[in-house]
């Protein structure tokens, strides 16, 4: 069964405390993996696309990495404004994305 | 600025009533999508359209209908047949309908039952 699993469900960090979020998937022939950030009451904001194992993308304090079975979103020295829900999504089949349920990240000042 | 506009932001439905959610994009994207988001669940696909005048059912299409008469517009109607319509509805678009393209989202419509 096609599945995208994110962990942990929720994560609370002190400001400046680095950590990683995980997105694991079951699909053969990965054709891409997407990371999004979602603030309360808003639509998801696109962050990164990763296409092949070993690929890395960075944006400010965020770095996304990809292996054959999972992706990590590393957050370095986070600030309170990084608090949000982070979603990953994987295409299964030619047309549709399957989304994980997200990790709710809270950064405490 | 290019983007996706959803309206209204909040919508209330009476029992037995159909309501229509608007989604407009000026990104010149071919493909458009409607998702439903419930607490604790991932985004679930309702309908999608890869090209004008064509659309396909997603995973939870029952009780919903769509049209795609113009490239920039993809309205969603929540019919009275949808018995649990209370949710956050998100519209998205992508450059093409191939799943390896990122989707870009509007800011959603929250639908509640009166």
3D structure, described in words:
The complex is a heterodimer of chains A (109) and B (114). Chain A has 109 residues and is mainly β. Chain A contains no helices and 11 strands. Chain A has one domain (3-100): Immunoglobulins (Immunoglobulin-like, Sandwich). Chain A is 0% helix and 59% strand. Chain A starts with a strand and ends with a strand. By secondary structure, chain B is mainly beta. Chain B is 0% helix and 48% strand. Chain B has no helices and 11 strands. Chain B has strands at 4-7, 10-13, 19-25, 31-37, 44-51, 54-57, 64-66, 76-78, 87-94, 104-105, 109-113. In chain B, strands 2, 4, 5, 6, 9, 10 and 11 form a 7-stranded mixed sheet that branches. In chain B, strands 1-3-8-7 form a 4-stranded antiparallel sheet, with no helix packed on it. Chain B is globular and about 35 Å long. The termini of chain B are far apart. The chains are: A mainly beta (109), B mainly beta (114). The interface between A and B is medium-sized, with 27 and 26 residues.
């Amino acid at each position: 069964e096609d599945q995208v699993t994110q962990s942990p469900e929720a994560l609370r960090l002190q400001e400046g405390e680095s950590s990683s979020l995980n997105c694991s998937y079951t699909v053969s022939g990965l054709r891409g993996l997407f990371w999004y950030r979602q603030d309360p009451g808003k639509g998801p904001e696109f962050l990164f696309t990763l296409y092949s194992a070993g690929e890395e993308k960075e944006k400010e304090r965020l770095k996304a990495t990809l292996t054959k079975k999972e992706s990590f979103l590393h957050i370095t020295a986070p600030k309170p404004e990084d608090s949000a829900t982070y979603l990953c999504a994987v295409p299964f089949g030619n047309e549709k994305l399957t989304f994980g349920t997200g990790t709710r990240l809270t950064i405490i000042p | 600025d290019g983007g996706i506009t959803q309206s209204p932001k909040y919508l209330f439905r009476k029992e037995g009533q159909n309501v229509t959610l608007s989604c407009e994009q000026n990104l010149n994207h071919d493909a458009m999508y409607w998702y439903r988001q419930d607490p604790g669940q991932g985004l679930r696909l309702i309908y999608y359209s890869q090209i004008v005048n064509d659309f396909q059912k997603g995973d939870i299409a029952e009780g919903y209908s769509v049209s795609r008469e113009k490239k920039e517009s993809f309205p969603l109607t929540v019919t009275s047949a949808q018995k649990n319509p209370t949710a956050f509805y998100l519209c998205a678009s992508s450059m093409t309908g191939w799943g390896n393209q990122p989707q870009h989202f509007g800011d959603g419509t929250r639908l509640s039952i009166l």
